[in-house]
Design goal:
It contains 9 helices and 15 strands. The chain is α/β, with parallel strands linked by helices. It folds into 3 domains: 4-88 and 174-182, Periplasmic binding protein-like II (D-Maltodextrin-Binding Protein, domain 2, 3-Layer(aba) Sandwich); 91-165, 3-Layer(aba) Sandwich (D-Maltodextrin-Binding Protein, domain 2); 192-274, Alpha-Beta Plaits (2-Layer Sandwich), CATH 3.30.70. The strands form 2 sheets. Strands 1, 2, 3, 4, 5, 11, 12, 13, 14 and 15 form a 10-stranded mixed beta sheet that branches. Strand 13 and strand 14 form a beta hairpin. The radius of gyration is 20 Å and the shape is globular.
Length: 281
């Protein structure tokens, strides 16, 4: 039976590319790809069993964690990360018009942020307008001489537009980590363990005690990030990625969780999974 895989649509987004790559790595046979309008719709599709899997961005090298994804993983603890890939991101400015006539630039908020310096230098008077996806932005500028979109260069051929500038992202090494989500925990080889927790007590040294446990077990943190709990001001959720590379590490991680849980008001394990870098054609 074919698996339905939700992703941030419409067609042509980096998320669609990631969905195809991750589905292949997961050995899905003839997957059916389901584009969704907005990250919340992607997450709900897996949370409410409308799809078998979902692909979402979780972290960008320039803008940091994708908050909608992080918040959803905390809200729906029955969802697990199964695999991850890191895609290089190279944005193009796409339009029917000429650069000198552009007064509005449309794209996903992350893409606008990743190109903010270029826009301020080259289109200082243009108004940035957020959209649900880069592909949606490109679709919205068709036929306009004063609007431009930021998106993948591959969208130019799809939509019959033209490239005004490429690449325009502020950081040449810009990349995004995409994850494959499902309701089944991963039991295969892994190089990352991801989890989040909120502490019982908000006192000096409370977080340090948890971090010291991680250090005592010899784990390297590849990421630590905080998000507001949304319950009260000053209460935070701590998101952590640990590097793991062998079965001993996985055994130690199980022991670490047992050490951390008494310190936590809530602890959510997002799963162990393999993450790898991928080059686009």
């Amino acid at each position: 039976m074919s698996k339905q895989v939700a992703y941030l649509g419409p067609k042509g987004t980096y998320a669609e590319k990631a969905a195809h790559i991750l589905s292949k790595l997961a050995n899905f046979q003839t997957p059916i790809f389901v584009p969704c309008n907005g990250l919340h719709s992607v997450i709900k599709s897996i949370a409410y069993n409308n799809c078998d899997a979902a692909v979402v961005p979780i972290e960008n090298s320039v803008e940091g964690g994708v908050t909608a994804t992080l918040d959803a993983l905390w809200k729906f603890p029955e969802i697990f990360i199964n695999k991850a890939i890191v895609l290089p991101i190279k944005h193009a400015l796409i339009s029917n018009g000429e650069l000198s006539n552009i007064s509005e630039v449309l794209s996903h908020p992350q893409a606008l942020a990743q190109c903010s310096e270029w826009l301020s230098e080259n289109l200082p008077d243009a108004i940035p307008l957020p959209t649900n996806s880069t592909s949606e932005a490109v679709n919205m500028v068709k036929g306009s001489k004063f609007r431009a979109a930021i998106g993948s260069k591959s969208l130019i051929q799809i939509e019959g537009l033209k490239e005004l500038a490429f690449p325009i992202n502020d950081v040449p090494g810009n990349c995004t980590r995409f994850v494959l989500l499902s309701k089944e925990s991963n039991s295969s080889l892994a190089n990352i363990a991801s989890f989040a927790f909120s502490l019982i007590s908000n006192r000096p040294g409370a977080l340090l005690k948890a971090i010291n446990y991680i250090a005592d077990f010899g784990f390297n943190m590849s990421k630590i990030e905080s998000r507001p709990s949304k319950r009260e001001l000053g209460e935070y959720i701590i998101y952590i990625d640990l590097e793991i590379n062998n079965q001993n590490n996985i055994k130690n991680f199980l022991e670490l969780k047992n050490k951390l849980k008494p310190l936590c008001n809530n602890f959510v394990d997002f799963g162990n999974y393999f993450s790898e870098n991928v080059e686009l054609d």
